[in-house]
Amino acid sequence: MQHTFSRRRLLAGATALSLGAGIVSSVHRPRSVSAGSGLNVIATTGQVADAVRGIAGDLVSVAAIMGPGVDPHTYTPSQGDIERLSNADAILYSGLELEGRFDEVFESLESEKTIVAVAESIPPEQLVASPQYPDQFDPHVWFDPAIWDFAIAAAAAALVEADPDNAATYEANATIYRDQVRAFDAYATQVLGTVAPERRVLVTAHDAFNYFGRRYGFEVVGIQGISTETEAGVNDLQMVAQLIADRQIPAIFVESSVSGSTIEAVQAAVRDRGFEVVIGGQLYSDAMGDEGTPEGTYVGMFTANVNTIATSLGGSLTPATPLPATPAVATPLS
Ligand code: ZN
């Protein structure tokens, strides 16, 4: 599979929105807009849909194709999905080959509507290469809020382009949403910083946490590789089990969108080596939690991950500095 950077139109997320351009007052008041824009936006993943919701509020109807527990690497759009995509005014997806099976439908629609890969607005030098596919980048960029910020800005720019009449509202909301993500990032840094340095090892089924590891100083061991389409080899599994036993890592993690069998096999292999590792809980990797729950939002699911990782590895949820209010659910202007 080839890179798609040049194939689809990308928006320069970083420059499209000028932060702090004097649009937003510190008081978060609803704007008097008589009705929604009528814009119908379809996002692929929950993370992208959450950004659109935060930026657009009630102005836009937004739906995610992939709900809780769905694996974007292997998800093939159904006939119904293709109809929804065809009927949308704009399509926002994550990109960097995350939703590899959507390529064909996006190509067939790209001349008709705004289609934006929000993560492909991140400067390449801030991306991590895929260990499996040397000509590709690791697509799990939402786990570094500092670079996901570019994706949020790109989503805002896409909405502004599709509906320029409401540009000021989208830009104001985007600033609020980006601030919430920054506040979360500060929270995560504090809480994860309470894990002892020798325990900052995150073992998961697939390699979704490389950006997380880079951002928060964790060594990351994914057994299955970047995409769930690659199978875990027996050797990989035994090597990971040996590492866990040697370093006495207390917990490993299952993911909501990946079968738990690989992690359970690792746990058994660690036990064969005379060490007990617990399954520290379920992390949200590529899919978010149920809609209407805190984990159904970007900040909420990420907060749940941070809390699960920190407590399972011996950290604390009560760092010295007061924490921002969590989970920060966007209450956008509309
Ligand atoms: Zn993944």
From TrEMBL:
<dbReference type="GO" id="GO:0007155">
    <property type="term" value="P:cell adhesion"/>
</dbReference>
<keyword id="KW-0732">Signal</keyword>
<dbReference type="GO" id="GO:0030001">
    <property type="term" value="P:metal ion transport"/>
</dbReference>
<dbReference type="InterPro" id="IPR006127">
    <property type="entry name" value="ZnuA-like"/>
</dbReference>
<keyword id="KW-0813">Transport</keyword>
<dbReference type="InterPro" id="IPR006311">
    <property type="entry name" value="TAT_signal"/>
</dbReference>
<keyword id="KW-0479">Metal-binding</keyword>
<dbReference type="GO" id="GO:0046872">
    <property type="term" value="F:metal ion binding"/>
</dbReference>
<dbReference type="InterPro" id="IPR006129">
    <property type="entry name" value="AdhesinB"/>
</dbReference>
<dbReference type="GO" id="GO:0030313">
    <property type="term" value="C:cell envelope"/>
</dbReference>
<dbReference type="InterPro" id="IPR050492">
    <property type="entry name" value="Bact_metal-bind_prot9"/>
</dbReference>
<protein>
    <submittedName>
        <fullName>Manganese ABC transporter, periplasmic-binding protein SitA</fullName>
    </submittedName>
</protein>
<dbReference type="Pfam" id="PF01297">
    <property type="entry name" value="ZnuA"/>
</dbReference>
<comment type="similarity">
    <text>Belongs to the bacterial solute-binding protein 9 family.</text>
</comment>
<dbReference type="InterPro" id="IPR006128">
    <property type="entry name" value="Lipoprotein_PsaA-like"/>
</dbReference>
